[in-house]
Each structure stands twice: as C-alpha cells, then as structure tokens.
Amino acid sequence: MTQRMTLAPSRRAVLTGVAGLGLAGGAGLPALAQQAVRWQMPTPYPAGNFHTRNITTFVEEVKTATRGGLEIVVHPGGSLLPLPQIRRNVQTGDVQIGEVFLPALENEDPIFGADSLPFIVTGYEAAERLLTASRPMIAARLQRAGLRLLFSVAWPPQGLYAARTIDQLEDLRGLRFRSYGPSAARFGELVGATISTIQAAELSQALATGRVNSMITSAVTGVDSKVWETDVKVYYDIQAWLPKNAVLVNDRAFRALPEATQTTVLNAAAEAERRGWQMSREAAASATAELRRNGVQVLEASPRLRDGLRRIGATLARDWEARAGADGAALLAPFKS
Ligand code: PCA
Fold first, then answer.
1. Rg of the chain (C-alpha set)
2. b/e per residue, 193-215, with b = 16+ CB within 10 A?
3. Residue 302 carries which DSSP code?
4. What is the number of other CB atoms lying within 10 angstroms of the CB of residue 274?
5. What is the DSSP string of 155-195?
6. Which residue has the least CA distance to atom 4 on ligand 1?
7. How far, in Å, from the CA of 134 to the mean position of ligand 1?
8. Of residues 4 and 271, which shows the higher confidence score?
9. In the chain, which ranges are E strands?
10. Distances from the Cα of 80 to the Cαs of 6, 26, 75, 77, 258, in angstroms?
11. Rounded to an integer, what distance in angstroms lies between the CA atom of residue 200 and that of residue 245?
C-alpha cells in the first residue's frame, strides 16, 4: 500500500492496471484461447541506450517465442519508476520485472558493489570472470528477497569527467561531484568533492544547470546526457571499473508462468546477456568517438593523477573487504595481483 502511495496518479494507473491476465484468443475462438500475461517493466536508462535496446530485443524474442503468451511492456528512462524504487517494486510485485544498477544496491549487501572497486577489474574479460564468480552470490541474495536474477550486463569502463583539466587528485577538491551509488559517493568524499546523488535520467539537467561539474561514468552516459552541451568538456579514459545492470523478476510472478514459458524466458535471458556484453563493447568504442566528435577532450590521466586514483582505490577496496566478509574475500582474491 505504502509503495503505491509514493507513485504519481498516472503511474498508479499503470501499476494497478496490471491485471496480468487477458484472453489471447478472441471470444469466438475458444479452442485457441489461452491466458496471455502482461508484465510491466520499469528501466532506468533512455530508450536509445544499449542496455534498453538489448532489453527491447529480449522482450520481442519472448513475445514471439510464446506467440504473445507473455508480453513485457518496457518503460525506459525511469518513466514508470525512478531507479531507487525499481528493486522494491519488483519485490512487492507491483511490477513483475525491472532493470537495476547493481552498485546502487550496495547498502543492502556489499557483494552488489564488487564491480565498483576502482582498478581491480578494469577490462571486459576480467569483468566477465567477476560476473561468473559473483553470480551465485548475487542470485542467492536476491532469491532471499523473492527476486530472481535473469541477466546482467556491464557498462563500458568508467572514466572521469570534469569541467577543467585534472592533473592530480587535489584538483578534484571542491568540485561538485555527481554520485550514482555508495561507492561513487565514497570516492567523491575521499577526494574532497561536494557530492550530489543524481540519477541518469536527471543527469543532463544537473550538468546543464551546473549543479554538478564532475563525475565518474562511462562514455555512453556522457553521450546520453550530451556533456558537450555543458561545461564538462574533459574526459579521462581511466577505465576505473565496469559496473553492471541486472534484470530482476519477481519470483512468484515467474513461477506462475507455464513451465514452457519459464524456459523460454530463461533462454532469452541467457541470449540477452551474451548479446548485451557484445553491445557494451561496441558502445564503449563508438561513444568515446562520439564524445571526441562533439568536442570533448578525451585524455589520458597523468602519472600523478593515476597514482592518486590508485591510492583512493586501495582505500575503497580495504573498506569494502572489511564489510564484505568471506564471500567478498573469495570473490576478490583472483583479481588481486
Ligand atoms: N552509466 C550509468 C551507470 C554507469 C554508467 O556508465 C550512470 O551514470 O548512471
């Protein structure tokens, strides 16, 4: 009840309209009549973003393979629910499926933030190994909350954006730093920046008004939010970490599907994960080129800046390990040289 109270009336109408059941066959075709299920799917990122495009293909595949038996309606860009509310609303069943940003769940359990530790996993190949190692841990934690992990896809490596050139860590002091989760906030704190938590859907505006003038995110999100139209015109391709999104489904809603449909969803999810990682690699390259084309300076970090960033990374990793227990230690061990 309280969940629904937090929604705007138009959004409430969509959610309470989720009867989920309807007749696929017409009234005149009783033999073909089967129950069609409709799921609502809030996602945080814009329609043109590669994560959203990948999800759209997933949804189309499910619809085709089930002959319309399962229809998933995607609501991109935080239009149905803002990112911080998606996980909870999938859990309560107000929506059946949704996309989340895993590091944003770190307050719930440090394991969700394993992919946001600076300079530990910095390339796709290692990021895939980290997903393989962490998947059972992530899935078990979600399962306890009645959620099922369908698939997870990495963002491109995270770089540093700023409104001025940054030659050393100290140059970040006093900047207005945008955070997208606990680890990014902690990073901002350690460098002495002022932190605002801003969702991707609100980022263009926050940059345009100068509410923030620095951040760590991917080239893709820099393009999505058209950083070149703001004062933020410098991008250091520091490849600090590769955080992941995850698509979660309410386990009760999943188990209510016919068995054949469950199998279809799981197969399409495995395919979406494979495709999504490929799309991520391609988007990393094309977005960096697009930043350049639009006049953003894409720079290498100076050795001094790199040293400073690594020092902060080591502090963050130590803090995380102290919180993440035996699972955390087991997860990180293979990645520490
Ligand atoms: N873009 C998302 C999360 C990570 C990324 O590259 C964002 O900035 O919100």
1. 21
2. bebbbbbbbbbbebbeeeebbbb
3. P
4. 12
5. PPPPEEEESS--SSGGGGTT-EEEESSHHHHHHHHHTT-EE
6. 217
7. 20
8. 271
9. 21-23, 35-42, 70-75, 97-101, 147-154, 159-162, 176-179, 194-197, 214-217, 234-236, 244-250, 297-299
10. 12, 30, 6, 8, 27
11. 13
What's the predicted TM-score (pTM) here? 0.91
- Rounded to whole angstroms, how far apart are CA atoms 212 and 230? 10
Which residues touch 307 (CB under 8 Å, ≥6 apart)? Answer: none
Pairing mode, strands 194-197 and 176-179: parallel
The count of other CB atoms within 10 Å of the CB of residue 116 is 29
Q: For residue 217, which atom of ligand 1 is closest to its CA? A: 6
The number of residues in the chain equals 337
Per the CB < 8 A criterion, the answer to whether 256 and 93 are in contact is no
Q: Decide: 213 and 175 in contact? Cβ < 8 Å.
A: yes
Q: Are 45 and 224 spatial neighbours (Cβ–Cβ below 8 Å)?
A: yes
Residue 112: the pLDDT is: 98
How would you class 245 by CB atoms within 10 Å of its CB: exposed for 0-12, middle for 13-18, buried for 19 or more?
A: buried
Helix (H) or strand (E) holding 296: none
Q: State the helix-helix crossing angle for 259-293 and 124-144, rounded to 10 degrees.
A: 140
pLDDT for res 183: 87
Q: Which atom of ligand 1 is nearest to the CA of 200?
A: 9
pLDDT of residue 239: 95
What residue's CA is closest to ligand 1, atom 7?
200
221 C-alpha vs ligand 1 centroid, how far in Å? 6
pLDDT in tens, 237-263: 999 999 999 999 999 999 999 999 999
Closest ligand 1 atom, residue 218 Cα:
6
